[in-house]
Structure formats: C-alpha cells, structure tokens
C-alpha cells in the first residue's frame, strides 16, 4: 500500500488477493466445519391460505462458526460451490432434512407438514447419479418421494444438459421440482416447457412492493396467472406484512412464505395457526 496525499492507496490486485485469500480460508474452514458438526438445519413454514395451515417447510442450512459466530449461507454456499464441498454438504443437508420430516411424520401424524423443500445447487444437480442418491436417501429415511421437493434456480437449469436430465429422473421418482427465485435469473419461459416444474417460487423482490400499484404488483399478478394457466403452484417468498399477504391473496396466491408466518428455526411449532391474511 502507498500513501498518496495522505490517503492509503492499495493496488487493486492486492485487494483482489486479499479477497481470494479470505475465500480460500473460508473454504478450508468449511472442511473442518463438516467434520466437526458445525452445521445445522432450520425450517421455515410455507403456509396455505386461507386456512393458514403449514403446508410445507423449506430447509435452510446454518453454520455456527466457533469464532465468527453465525455465517450466512449467502456467504459460504458460493464458496462451497467453488471448492466442490457443496456435494458433501448438500448430501448432509438432504439426509438431515429428509430424516427430520420422517421424524415429524412419526411424531405428529397428520399435523406434520406435507413436504420438505430442499435447496439444491447447480453443481450437485449436474453430478451424475444425483437422482439415484436422492432415491437412496428416501429409502434410508423412509420418507415417501412425494414428501420431498427440490428447489433449483433458473440459472442451474438454464445450461441444460445433465441438470435437466437429473430433474426428469427426480420427477420420475415422484419428487417435486420448484424453480427458486423465479424471475431474477436467466428467466426463460421456455424452461417451463422443457423442465418438469411443479412449483414456482416468486422472488421476494416482486413481493416487497406488491401493495403499491406499480410494476411489482403487475409482475406478481402475471406470474400467478401464468402458473395457474400452466397448472403449476406458486409460492410467494419474503412475505413480511399482513398488507402484502392480503394483496397476494387477492391476486390469487394460495401459498405464502415469510417472516410474517415464521422465521426459519430448528423446531417450528406447527400447531400454532399463523396470522391469517
Ligand atoms: P433462498 O433459497 O431464496 O432462501 C430464502 C432466504 O430468504 C432465506 O435466507 C430465508 O431465511 C430468507 N427469508 C425468508 N423469509 C424472509 C422474509 O420475510 N424477509 C427476509 N428479508 N428474508 C426472508 P437464508 O437462510 O439466509 O439463505 C440464503 C440463501 O442461501 C438461500 O436463498 C439459498 O439460495 C441458500 N441456501 C440456504 N440453505 C441452503 C442449502 O441447504 N443448500 C443450498 N444449496 N443453498 C442454501
Ligand atoms: Ca430456496
Ligand atoms: Ca428463493
Ligand atoms: Ca434468494
């Protein structure tokens, strides 16, 4: 670093080096984290309107780092994808989430959510044998295939190839397929023709201002028409206020997810009826 007119000027490549060093360090720590059980899963309700019943839960991974504290998946998932550890981490996530729902079903019977929705990264999906791995997890945990959904991003399937093959194999098993963050990636309506999608998750960015008579509301309305017309299910993500819930319900959304109904926690209370819209 050099001092220019009293200001410390760092060469851009030095800043880049520091960033990639931090990235590499995080990557190495992920290995330790996996081996020493620093990950856990949390579950966020997806409620069905107008009953307010918890229809499904989305499984989200958490990393409790011994020194850094809670590290966001938005920070470490890209690192795990880059260094390949996502395959092992993703396998752990899938096993843990399936086992969790199998246990809830045994304990709670019909009060258990109907489905657990698990995020799957592009790398995991495109690896040969992914569908067979999922089948082995279902067999080992005793969870029916219809109780599992995988959430994949448009970007992951946009490339086509092995990821799309895997989705067809998963579909054949009876696993549901959800397109995550719909409308924010390489959106192509053509995807809905070639990929066996059941559910579209409408991104929070279309929900935030859905109560105002602006573009977001128009997009939210168009997306529910589209999914209804195609016989698909739409889930609105990131619902934080009763006003948003009311606006979405008025547009015809039946499945809502967001802090209004519950934050992701290790052990959600399914008996509690969430605030109705
Ligand atoms: P995502 O799949 O879009 O998950 C939704 C994110 O929005 C979660 O963040 C959730 O906690 C947050 N969220 C839910 N409701 C609200 C709300 O009302 N308001 C706001 N502001 N946020 C809300 P989280 O858990 O930090 O996860 C971030 C991302 O990391 C996820 O986005 C997903 O892409 C990735 N991720 C998380 N867990 C996993 C996993 O097990 N495997 C993979 N491959 N990716 C994961
Ligand atoms: Ca998701
Ligand atoms: Ca999402
Ligand atoms: Ca997201």
Please state how the strands of the largest beta sheet are arranged side by side: 3-4-6-7-8-9-10-11
Mean pLDDT: 92
Q: What overall form do the CA principal axes indicate?
A: globular
Number of strands: 11
- Biggest sheet record: 8 strands, mixed, barrel
Q: How large is the share of residues in beta strands? A: 15-25%
Domain EAL: 23-277
Protein name: Bifunctional diguanylate cyclase/phosphodiesterase
Task: Annotate the secondary structure layout.
Elements: E1 2-4, E2 7-9, H1 12-35, E3 39-48, E4 53-65, E5 69-71, H2 73-83, H3 86-108, E6 115-119, H4 122-126, H5 130-141, E7 148-153, H6 154-158, H7 162-173, E8 176-182, H8 191-194, E9 199-202, H9 215-230, E10 233-236, H10 242-251, E11 255-257
Parallel strand pairs: 4-6, 6-7, 7-8, 8-9, 9-10, 10-11
Antiparallel strand pairs: 1-2, 3-4, 3-11, 4-5
Helix pairs in contact: 1-2, 3-5, 5-7
The structure holds ligand C2E and calcium ion (3 copies).
The site of one calcium ion has 4 residues, from loops.
Organism: Paractinoplanes rhizophilus
Protein name: Bifunctional diguanylate cyclase/phosphodiesterase
Domain EAL: 23-277
Structure description:
This protein is an alpha/beta fold. Helices cover 44% and strands 22% of the residues. The protein contains ten helices and eleven strands. The chain has helices at 12-35, 73-83, 86-108, 122-126, 130-141, 154-158, 162-173, 191-194, 215-230, 242-251, and strands at 2-4, 7-9, 39-48, 53-65, 69-71, 115-119, 148-153, 176-182, 199-202, 233-236, 255-257. A hairpin with a 2-residue loop joins β1 and β2. The longest helix has 24 residues, at 12-35. The structure holds ligand C2E and calcium ion (3 copies). Residues 44, 60-61, 72-74, 77, 90, 93, 119-121, 180-181, 238-240, 258-259, 264 line the site of ligand C2E. The site of one calcium ion (CA) has 4 residues, from loops. Residues 23-277 form the EAL domain. It comes from Paractinoplanes rhizophilus.
């Amino acid at each position: 670093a050099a001092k220019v007119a009293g200001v410390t000027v760092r060469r851009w490549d030095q800043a880049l080096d520091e960033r990639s060093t931090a990235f590499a360090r995080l990557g190495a720590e992920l290995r330790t984290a996996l081996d020493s059980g620093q990950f856990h899963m949390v579950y966020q309700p997806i409620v069905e309107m107008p009953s307010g019943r918890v229809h499904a839960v989305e499984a989200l991974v958490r990393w409790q780092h011994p020194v850094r504290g809670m590290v966001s998946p938005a920070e470490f998932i890209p690192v795990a994808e880059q260094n390949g550890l996502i395959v092992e981490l993703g396998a752990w996530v899938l096993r843990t989430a399936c086992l969790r729902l199998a246990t809830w079903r045994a304990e709670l019977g019909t009060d258990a959510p109907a489905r657990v929705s698990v995020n799957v990264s592009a790398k995991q999906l495109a690896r040969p044998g992914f569908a067979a791995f999922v089948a082995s997890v279902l067999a080992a945990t005793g969870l029916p295939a219809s109780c599992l959904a995988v959430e994949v991003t448009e970007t992951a399937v946009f490339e086509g190839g092995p990821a799309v093959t895997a989705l067809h194999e998963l579909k054949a098993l009876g696993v549901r397929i959800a397109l995550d963050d719909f409308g924010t990636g390489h959106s192509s309506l053509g995807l809905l023709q070639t990929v066996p999608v059941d559910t579209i998750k409408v991104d929070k960015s279309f929900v935030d201002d859905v109560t105002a008579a602006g573009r977001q509301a128009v997009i939210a309305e168009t997306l529910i028409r589209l999914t209804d017309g195609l016989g698909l299910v739409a889930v609105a993500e990131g619902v934080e206020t009763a006003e948003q819930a009311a606006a979405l319900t008025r547009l015809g959304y039946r499945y809502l997810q967001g802090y209004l109904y519950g934050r992701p926690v290790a052990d959600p209370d399914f008996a509690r009826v969430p605030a109705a819209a």
